[in-house]
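PROTOCOL LOG
Step 1. Enter all chains and additional molecules of the complex.
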Amino acid sequence: MMAGWVRTLITTLLCLTLSGALAASIWAIAGNPTPVDLPRLLSENMDRSGVAHPVTAVLLNFRSYDTLLEIGVLVIAGIAGISMAKTASLEDPELRTSDTLLYALQRWFVPLMLVLAGYLLWAGAERPGGAFQAGAVVAATGVLMRLGGIPMDFLRPGLLLRLGLGLGFSVFLVVAVASAIGGEAFLAYPPGLTKALIVVIESVLTLSIAMVLLALFVSAPVNDAEDPEEGGPA
Amino acid sequence: MTASLLYALAGAVLFGMGLYGLLRLPHLLRKLLAFNIMGSGVFLVMVGLPQHRGGADPIPQALVLTGIVVAIAATALAVVLMRRYYHLSGMTTLEEPSPEQRPGGRR
Amino acid sequence: MTLWLMAGLLFTPLAWAVLTLLTDFRWGRWVTSFGILVQVLVSLGLWLTIARDGGFYYGLGGWDAPLGIELRVDGLAVTFVLLTAVVASACGWHAGVYIDPDKAWHRYFWPLFWFLWSGLNAVWLGGDLFNLYVGLELISLSAVGLVALGGKAAALRASLRYLLAALLGSLAYLLGVALLYGQFGSLSIAGVATLLADNPAPAGSGLALALMVTGLSLKTALFPLHQWLPPAHGIAKSPVSALLSALVVKASFYIAARLWLEFGATIGSFAAAQLVGLLGSAAVVWGSWLAFRQQQLKQVVAYSSVAQIGYLFLLFPLTYSVSEAVSLQAQQGITLQVISHGLAKAAMFLAAGNLILSVGSGRIEALAGVSRFLPFSLFSFGLAGVSLMSLPPTGGFTAKWLLLQASLGSGQWWWVAVLLAGGLLSAAYVFRIYRASFLERPETDRFYHPPRSLEVIPLILALLSLGLGLASEQVLSVMALPFEEAGAP
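Step 2. Run joint prediction.
Step 3. Record the structure below.
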């Protein structure tokens, strides 16, 4: 076994070299123009995308397959997270407080945050915003409610929670497949409906993203249920 | 030298720093934070480098948004795994416990 | 027709992931059986279509590259899609019987299983650098979730290790993507390759390729970055171990190989190719030696994966600045190695799971006497071992034969020693397990008999890997099919 300081030294040198090489590469790359001008191509096709904001257009139209899989990744994390929680309810009674100041604050903040989430979702069409930002704010509202001890009975690993986790993803998927059945390519929106479909997808995605994030927050597991494992130290 | 290029170079530094942390810090939570620092470094390079030449480029911005969601999912999953691991073993590092240290010994 | 097949291939695993999320384990089993049927038919249909008409690019959402995401549907990709369909169906079928349906958390097995499958298909078909990143993460997170499912401290430690290694690998890959996008302004692999052909080796791209290949090697567990693999593959439930060893590590290797074949000729170097080959050889020797030294049955199989993965990286030196014919031979050898190891290793892990179930312990000494009670599983284990030892007529033999010819054809005779040593060493660890199971001990006469279907599945997989050597001509002919059109830059 190598001494600790030798390892530290080697790792330091490795990281410094890597950062240096990286900086040199970035410098070298920055000196030349790119052969493909993707932003121009994007702006030429913007009018066919159904939304006014280019980032939203890329996320939900040009590269919607990325977004579909990305929501899949989020759902996986949610599933794996709640699979760790082996209690009937994800609620933690210890967190219930009766702090009047916190309670008063929540009465102001929770509705305000929900309105903000709605605005972020709506704004996504023409300026920065969109499903993920809105979902994150809704999830944060949930976190605030939980920390403040407001009971949230829907957060048990039952059918409702699982429906919520999968809802946004399934709607996205149904739209993708419906477009294929309609004769277009997989994930191609039928012309004329693009805008409406993107709004629908964004709304349900907001809900599901919030559910996943909140489920991950509350599924911190604290009980002793066990499963025998194989192959490990017997 | 534009501000965007500076972001990209800062990203290179962050990547190295995060890598050091991920490799050398034993505490799992610190490893996870180091991973997130590395991630921020990558995102800075991804946005800063194209922006240096042609102004704001929406494509890498969208990619970074996707990347952030993936990183959040991974981070959240890692935290849940860590809490469960801590609950079961009382450990915050990945070191193998020696047989007599293991809770309950050989079962 | 092709459109339907593509939609079916991409859509079914994702849809079934959501469907099984809503069911419990028992219902999930029925729903999954139907999904497996659909998926196998679609994969087979696509394979036959490609075998008849040749490959094509498929622009998702009706947008072509570079603005949209293109899938590259060629002979190699559909071959791996078909391999995935075979191995994943076998593992899914096995898991349906093997996994205890009464544990509440096992209901999450099916959604993770389907997400894993969809991630694999996304990677085989991916033609877009960033989309491949998302596909890789889809695979990694679902694989980690499967390893951790219902696990105790040791399983969680293994899955955390696995998660951190996988995330580090993905980030290195993503940084490479960021550099390439900064350089070329395109994310399409075919597009970047075309640009590279016009403008060889621009400054800065070398590091991008190095970062991507290193990150992917970490995810593939190339020596010396392999330490995360044996704990994770050893401790997971057997059907999960089989999926991880047979398919998941191949996904990251597949991307590394695609990148090397497309970009390596212009931005790679002889030294880099030799270095990767050297690490692969070290993996073959060191992994086999460690496999021989293990006390736990599944650890033997897991370390054997480290060794067998080593062979794959011989692709790098054997395709760098060699003649067209030698490069093709090497590519064919590696493809066969991926397929035969996938089938054989899945068979081995499933059979090992049966053996452990039967004797109630994961230790090798506990196997004493099992040869009289579980001949089927032991036979499957041995058959799969024959393919790993690369004896004729297995797929493993044909693979190594092609690699041997490629080594000699390119004048890199030193890899021949690795190929021979690897075969001998794998014989050593397979025979060690056989010997243990033929020992007789009077006190151990009680064995649990697993259901017959658990024993049949590894046997089928082992026979397939055995038969691959005889059918290798047909398998390889699909790979070499012409491609419809070159991708737009």
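Step 4. Note key features.
Chain A touches chain B through 49 residues (CB under 8 Å).
Confidence is low (pLDDT under 50) at residues 224-234 of chain A.
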